[in-house]
Amino acid sequence: MTRLPRTATTFSPPVMEARRWLDGVDFTHRPLINVSQAAPVDPPPEGLRRAMAEAALHTPEAHLYGPVLGLPDLRAELAAQWSASYGGEIAAANVGITSGCNQAFCAALSTLCAEGDEVLLPTPWYFNHKMWLDMTGVTAVPLPAGDGLLPDPEAAAARITPRTRAIVLVSPNNPGGVEYPAETLHAMRDLARERGLVLVVDETYRDFDARDGRPHDLFTDPDWGDHFVHLYSFSKAYRLTGHRVGALVTSPERLAEAEKFLDTVAICPAQLGQIGALWGMRNLSQWVAGERAEILDRRAAIAEAFPRLAAKGWRLLGCGAYFAYVEHPFSLPSDALAPALVREAGVLLLPGTMFMPASDPSGARQLRIAFANVDRAGIAELFERLARVSLPLAPAPATA
């Protein structure tokens, strides 16, 4: 029997697939509204770019291999700032810098799982997490989110088997946008500790959380490294997407295992991006606060404008950080509707089927809107276009 190569065990990259829907469509008279990807489209602030340019010109070692776990100054800076903001004790020895947050996830899971193991992923899930598990022979066990797109610890406990190694959460969530309450994260950590698992929390969008103060107290546990792994991305806060700078925060022992993975895959994270991230952490707190305020205003604009779509049968399932996750009213499944919306409305977004198991029919009714690059006027235009879509509606649900 011929076995499939690892890459053949998963689906094609969703964002790349969606971009192909644009081929042959004329946007001359109706510019495309692209709400498909959660990535800043503007360059970093000038000061950060200057710091990187100066390093490129005057720091010869910036062009060489650096430490596998990242520049010591950046590791120390993140440890100090996270200790202050989360209220726990985090040392530089707990921090590894990675080539983006996706690589941090892959490194962390490589220290946790062997082929045939299982990991709990709430659905809708972040598709790159599912892809990595597929390609490493790890089973992603769907954990359907309940009301408000929040995962339930009791439902998680019921899905744990002897092969389960980790529970993975994303907060603020991609694709749902929801911010997980501290109580939910605390309960999931307690469950992981009770069952001998590890809770992995991807906090890529932490800088755009609407809540004031720390989002959780997981780092205040003196033994936090035993059952908790934190992931972060510098891409969103500092517009460093193309430079691929992320972070893995865990115990020194697990970081030593992750170093094997990182050395094999990339040898080291790119130094110029790290130099930019360090400069940003030291100099851009007020600027990031302004970026957060703008994102929160766009989130408010989504909530304020949504009643127009609600009157047409749409439902807002979740909203926050970069995302609104919605249920559409049309008879077309979302994987057919999303390409149709490119042609019908000049809107590019992603279908819920990209965030759900094929066996879950709810994905066919759902769509993700990544609104971070669309201002209030753009959001108003987006909703205007969606409200005008005249495709056949799904039949109303039968009543008893």
General description of the model:
The chain is an alpha/beta fold and 400 residues long. The protein folds into two domains: 6-43 and 287-388, Aspartate Aminotransferase, domain 1, CATH 3.90.1150.10; 46-284, Aspartate Aminotransferase, domain 2. The protein is 39% helix and 15% strand. The protein has 13 helices and 13 strands. The chain has a seven-stranded mixed beta sheet with strand order 2-8-7-6-5-3-4, with helices on both faces. A four-stranded antiparallel beta sheet has the order 9-10-13-12. Strand 5 (164-170), helix 7 (182-195) and strand 6 (198-202) form a beta-alpha-beta unit. It is globular, with a radius of gyration of 21 Å. It starts with 13 loop residues before the first helix and ends in a 12-residue tail after the last helix. The mean pLDDT is 96.
